[in-house]
Specification:
Helices cover about 45% and strands about 20% of the residues. The protein is elongated, with a radius of gyration of 30 Å. The chain has three domains: about 5-80; about 95-185, no CATH class; about 190-239. Helix 2 (about 130-145) runs antiparallel to helix 3 and helix 5 (about 185-205) packs across helix 6 (about 220-239). It is an alpha+beta fold. The strands form two sheets. Strands 1-2-3 form a three-stranded antiparallel beta sheet, with helices on one face. A three-stranded antiparallel beta sheet has the order 4-5-6.
Length: about 240
């Protein structure tokens, strides 16, 4: 708590009372306010007016503390941590893109979630699709950091572009001296390839122009319609 009491003769300007002051955002946000107790009959808690001014100062400081925490929270959920290395940041504190050694062997892409006092939690694309890995990473990040649901949903619905990992690989290889093979990008784009293939298959089946009245095999027709419906669903997700 940043509340200071100045008794008689303590302040160079002659002020008597309480001064509340708080600074955040690297000093860009600075607040201070004075609460005089010169009218109090006694400069102690035995005086009602003295206690009243003291409580006002403490209340003001508490309000600024809440404002400071809100500012810190908003930075946490809307900005990349300034300490994050180049191309790792994903728009929030605590989630980064990275390539990591899988059991000390192959380089594997993943989303990494930092956890206060705990090891990082990594969600590898060798285990999940890009979309699922992002969902798991965001959910874990939200649980570990007490993120509000509205912010969890917003971040969840704003996944990074997979090409982020192309830039990250280039940064790590060309600038940082690593040797990550291009094959390491495979799992990043696997989901996209699967959806593109599903779209092509749907278009191929559509070209067959299935007609309910032109087949002599109702069971075959039903199977074809089910397949077409499945590919249509895949196509909608791609589109």
């Amino acid at each position: 708590m940043s509340v200071t009491y100045y008794g008689r003769g303590d302040h160079p300007g002659g002020f008597v009372g309480f001064r509340a002051v708080r600074s955040w955002n690297h000093g860009k946000d600075y607040r201070q306010c004075y609460f005089s107790t010169s009218a109090a009959k006694s400069q102690s808690d035995s005086d009602v007016y003295f206690r009243y001014q003291k409580l006002r100062a403490e209340h003001q400081d508490a309000c600024w503390a809440v404002e400071s925490l809100e500012h810190q929270y908003q930075r946490f959920v809307t900005m990349t941590n300034p300490t994050a290395k180049p191309e790792r940041g994903l728009g929030v504190h605590g989630i980064t893109a990275m390539f990591a050694r899988w059991h000390g062997e192959k380089w594997e892409p993943c989303f990494s979630v930092s956890r206060p006092g705990k090891p990082q939690k990594r969600f590898f694309f060798r285990h999940h699709t890009f979309t699922k890995a992002w969902e798991l990473a965001v959910d874990h990040w939200a649980q570990e950091n007490g993120i509000m649901e509205v912010d969890r949903e917003r971040v969840l619905n704003s996944p990074p572009d997979p090409s982020k990992f192309k830039r990250l690989r280039r940064q790590m290889n060309d600038v940082e001296g690593f040797d990550i093979p291009v094959e390491a990008l495979g799992p990043v784009f696997q989901e996209q390839r699967d959806l593109i293939n599903a779209k092509k298959s749907a278009e191929k089946i559509r070209s067959l122009k299935l007609n309910e009245t032109s087949t002599d095999n109702p069971s075959l027709l039903t199977t074809e319609k089910e397949i077409l419906a499945w590919f249509e669903l895949k196509r909608e997700k791609v589109g």
